[in-house]
User: Which sequence fits this backbone?
């Protein structure tokens, strides 16, 4: 019996040892499977992150290409917002323009069903109340309701949760922001670092585009009078198509006498008054260029010489408030009267004919 008990104990021990070995093997297998699963998840996440990085790099390249096109700044920025909206999987993307107390929102990208979901942020008043339009740095909101509660702003309806407000152009008169929103429960729960990097790079590119265009606009302006300069005339004249136009050359009479008697400061003031009055009276019908010294050029829609002289007379009357002796000699030509290369010479000749007649009348 004793030997039988010993044998039974040995068998039980071996069974327990076999069971323990099986348990250990099972645990090791499960641990390996878990590590393998985590590794596969990490690989999938890494692969997804690489794909996102590639897509965002392509989006940024597209942004730069859009900003290099000859589009109006507003149209260019709306196209940029739409492109980024696709790349970042947002529900709404657009432009917010602030000027004084006025705020305008223009949406260029809208996911299906997004209109009703984002009513809270479509209202410019909500943007003002939340102070989003006042930001001068990129602003990211992951919980709009919490921000509204913190700033004691009541939002009427809507399901917006995430908001990104990216400065894209700042000036003393106002500000332009790129605007992006995601609704509550969106598949992307918050603004990711990669999202922010893309948006801020796009914002900087937009600002550079606006700065470049502003600098180019100023380079086309005469520093003294504020009207367009000779460079602008050369560019605009070369770009004219076959559309008919009227060209006029104007030369101020009496400027030298004013400079000699009252100083160049008064002469400069006379030039500013005359140029501003002529540009204002012409309005959209024509453009005024300071061609050099006391000579100006006008490019206008087709009008008769008498009609153009009426606009010039208004500017002369304004200038005579400063110096009653001022006058203007004018030469007018229609685009059909000569070839493009000859038009300026014809107008110039007629201007000098006018100057000689005025001088003869004074004698």
Assistant:
């Amino acid at each position: 019996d004793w030997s039988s008990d010993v044998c039974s104990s040995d068998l039980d021990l071996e069974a327990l040892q076999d069971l323990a070995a099986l348990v250990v093997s099972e645990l090791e297998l499960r641990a390996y499977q878990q590590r393998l699963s985590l590794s596969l998840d990490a690989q999938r996440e890494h692969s997804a992150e690489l794909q996102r990085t590639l897509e965002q790099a392509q989006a940024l390249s597209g942004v730069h290409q859009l900003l290099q096109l000859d589009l109006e700044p507003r149209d260019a920025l709306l196209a940029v917002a739409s492109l980024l909206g696709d790349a970042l999987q947002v529900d709404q993307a657009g432009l917010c323009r602030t000027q004084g107390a006025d705020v305008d929102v223009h949406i260029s990208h809208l996911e299906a069903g997004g209109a009703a979901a984002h009513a809270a942020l479509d209202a410019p008043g909500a943007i003002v109340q939340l102070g989003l339009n006042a930001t001068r740095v990129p602003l990211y909101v992951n919980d709009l309701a919490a921000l509204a509660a913190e700033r004691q702003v009541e939002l009427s309806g809507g399901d917006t949760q995430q908001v990104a407000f990216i400065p894209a152009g700042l000036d003393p008169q106002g500000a332009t922001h790129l605007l992006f929103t995601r609704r509550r429960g969106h598949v992307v729960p918050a603004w990711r670092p990669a999202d922010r990097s893309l948006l801020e790079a796009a914002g900087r590119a937009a600002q550079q585009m606006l700065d470049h265009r502003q600098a180019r606009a100023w380079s086309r302006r005469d520093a003294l009078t504020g009207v367009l300069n000779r460079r602008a005339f050369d560019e605009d004249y070369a770009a004219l198509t076959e559309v008919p136009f009227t060209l006029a050359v104007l030369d101020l009479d009496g400027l030298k006498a004013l400079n000699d008697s009252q100083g160049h400061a008064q002469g400069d003031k006379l030039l500013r008054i005359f140029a501003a009055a002529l540009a204002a009276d012409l309005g959209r019908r024509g453009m005024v260029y300071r061609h050099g010294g006391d000579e100006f050029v006008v490019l206008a829609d087709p009008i008769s010489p008498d009609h153009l002289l009426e606009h010039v007379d208004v500017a002369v009357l304004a200038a005579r408030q400063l110096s009653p002796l001022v006058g203007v000699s004018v030469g007018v030509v229609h685009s059909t009267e000569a070839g493009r290369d000859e038009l300026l010479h014809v107008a110039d000749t007629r201007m000098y004919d006018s100057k000689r007649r005025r001088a003869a009348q004074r004698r």
In short: Residues 231 and 347 are 19 Å apart (CA to CA). The radius of gyration is 36 Å.
